[in-house]
Design brief:
alpha+beta; CBS-domain; 3-stranded mixed beta sheet; two-stranded antiparallel ribbon
């Protein structure tokens, strides 16, 4: 099963120069917890991501409102991604390594074409239990979630990056 088989294709985006209230609006309207940040204009090149947690922590730590903080100030610029042609297991491995629940899906030109979440993969795994064909097992989903939730301090100590 490929990433393209399970990813969300209609993804809301923001640009780095927009304000946090715009990212929050996209999350509310699309019922999601992450927004890919793209260059804007005709380019859908991913330059970052912002999560609902990023927004909350920015407002808390900066003591300013959503309409006073630019996305570029707080977005994550170290972005792991995958392609639609990748196998779902490869996307899971990237999620585990990067300790993220969602990956932007890009094409050969690094343009955003979708997003895949652990929830998308979990839904695909239930197809197997209902008799439909799925290459993803619930056990694999559980292992991915466990790896994502592993303490970052433990990971740093284990890899010598503490």
């Amino acid at each position: 099963m490929t990433v393209a088989d399970v990813m969300t294709k209609d993804v809301g985006t923001c640009a780095p120069d927009q304000l946090l209230n715009e990212a929050a609006r996209v999350m509310w309207e699309r019922d999601c917890g992450v927004v890919p940040i793209v260059l804007g204009g005709d380019s859908r090149q991913v330059v970052g991501v912002i999560t609902d947690r990023d927004i909350c922590m920015a407002v808390y730590t900066k003591g300013r409102s959503l309409s006073e903080i630019s996305i570029g100030e707080v977005m994550s610029t170290k972005v792991a991604s995958c392609t639609g042609a990748d196998d779902v297991s490869a996307a899971e491995a990237t999620m585990q390594r990067s300790q993220v629940h969602r990956l932007p899906v890009v094409d050969d030109s690094e343009q955003l074409v979708g997003i895949i979440s652990l929830a998308d993969i979990a839904r695909a795994s239930t197809r197997r239990s209902r008799g439909a064909k799925s290459d993803v097992s619930p056990l694999e989903v559980g292992e991915t979630l466990a790896a994502i939730r592993r303490s970052r301090q433990l990971v740093a100590a284990a890899t010598g990056n503490a």
